[in-house]
Amino acid sequence: MKKRIVIAACLLATVAAYAQGAINFSNHVPYMGVDAPIFAIDGMTKLAGTGYLAELYAGRTTDTLVPIGDPLPFRTGDLAGYLVAGPPASPTDPLRIVPGITGGVVATVQVRAWDVSTGATWDAATIRGQSVHLTLTLGFGGLPPVPPADLLGLRSFSLQVVPEPSTMALGLLGACLLLLWRRK
Predict the structure, then answer these.
(1) How far apart are CA 110 and CA 157, in angstroms?
(2) How far does the chain reach from its first CA to its final CA, in angstroms?
């Protein structure tokens, strides 16, 4: 009897693992119509090499986005602007499993990229950019397996300089002083 319970629990755990939603984190899937290179601040130079990273964020809504998996570096040469995608189960594997969201469910995703010389993470970087929010139906394993969702609708974007809070605070202080001076 105990043996059957253990086997049933293992089977349920396996089914639950296959039920998680999956996304193909690639901005270059030509046969699916995904071709969205990511550009530097000038809007013309494609990001290249390990000096830039991109990370996938996903959640049920735009307010619940969290990073999914490790950030990916960019290719170089003719494929600059596109993310490095390695073999399955490698650190650069493009397959991203979205915890807490089952396959077949609609999720919101966003690609965020940054210059690593200005910060180790997207939140810390002062030169960064992000895609528009995409609404996708996630793929999943199971029988029959449904392939991971591609980033359909992804458009190219450029990095931008994010002003530091101290710069914005000084600007606001200056504006307040000008208003006070003008009143006198």
Answers:
(1) 12
(2) 89
Domain boundaries, the chain: 2-173
Residue 117: count other Cβ atoms within 10 Å of its Cβ.
11
Per-residue pLDDT of the chain (184 residues; tens, 9 = 90+): 555 554 544 444 444 445 688 999 999 998 889 999 999 999 999 999 999 999 999 999 999 999 998 999 999 999 999 998 766 656 667 889 888 888 888 999 999 999 999 999 999 999 999 999 999 988 876 556 678 899 999 999 999 998 766 655 666 777 777 777 776 6
- d(Cα 16, Cα 122) in Å, to the nearest integer? 31
Place of tokens 């139906």: 137
Which pTM does this prediction carry? 0.77
